[in-house]
Write a structure and sequence with these properties.
- The chain is mainly α.
- Strands 1-2 form a two-stranded antiparallel ribbon.
- About 15% of the residues are buried.
């Protein structure tokens, strides 16, 4: 007997929010890779600080870059030191520290959001 993979309501909601967030970023920014500068139809929203370890920064514009398909998995994920240097050149030397400060600020809406993720 075959079983279909089922998704939780939370998982479906996060997936839908990711799609909407990508659309917002694509409307706000030029359709080119922020790393190599090439225009692309296969742009991906890349997170500077990973969304898995920093869930509160998942939907923050400040934590996102638009990278094309080769630059995102091949360059950013396979060489994190090169990616960190690229972010420093693009955003400034203290940008990652700024993201940590944004993450540490928490209001009641953030707290409610975090409680739903548990």
């Amino acid at each position: 007997m075959r079983y279909l993979k089922t998704y939780s309501d939370k998982g479906c909601l996060i997936k839908e929010c990711d799609k909407l967030f990508r659309q917002v970023i694509l409307k706000e920014r030029p359709h080119k890779c922020e790393w190599c500068g090439k225009p692309s139809e296969r742009l991906q929203v890349a997170h500077i600080l990973p969304k898995g370890t920093h869930p509160r920064l998942r939907y923050r514009r400040e934590n996102c870059l638009l990278l094309d398909f080769p630059c995102h998995p091949e360059r950013a994920h396979r060489n994190p030191l090169e990616f960190a240097e690229f972010v420093k050149r693009l955003k400034g030397i203290n940008y990652i520290e700024t993201l940590y400060r944004i993450e540490s600020f928490m209001d009641k809406h953030d707290k409610l959001y975090l409680m739903t993720l548990r």
